[in-house]
Amino acid sequence: MLNDVMSIICLVLLAIASIGLIATVLLQSGKSAGLSGSIAGASEQLFGSKKAKGMDAFLSKLSIACAVVFLVSSLGLCFFTGTF
Question: 31: domain range?
């Protein structure tokens, strides 16, 4: 009974984390955003002033959090269903 409840909780967390991971990856901007990014990218990379700011930094941290929740919930689902 407890394994069934925990497996359902892990399955719900897995679905939410997978949707969140897909959304955060798709919302992030690309590393080479057009011609201006490639022209100025070398000088910014040389002097180290190219840092993620604002929404990109938030989405990057959120995608890492979603990936961790995805990994933990998938391992929990395997454990509680007995396929581990």
Answer: 2-81
Give 1-36 pLDDT, tens digit per residue.
888 899 999 999 999 999 999 999 999 887 765 555
Q: How far apart are CA 56 and CA 4, in angstroms?
A: 38
Number of domains in the chain: 1
Determine the Cα–Cα distance for residues 20 and 79; give it in Å rounded to an integer: 23
DSSP 7: H
The sign one gets for the Cα dihedral 77, 25, 42, 53 is negative
pTM across the whole model = 0.72
Contact present, 9 and 74 (Cβ < 8 Å): no
Alpha-carbon distance of 46 to 49, in angstroms, equals: 8
Tell me, what amino acid is at 67? A
Give per-residue pLDDT as tens, 66-83: 999 999 999 999 998 888
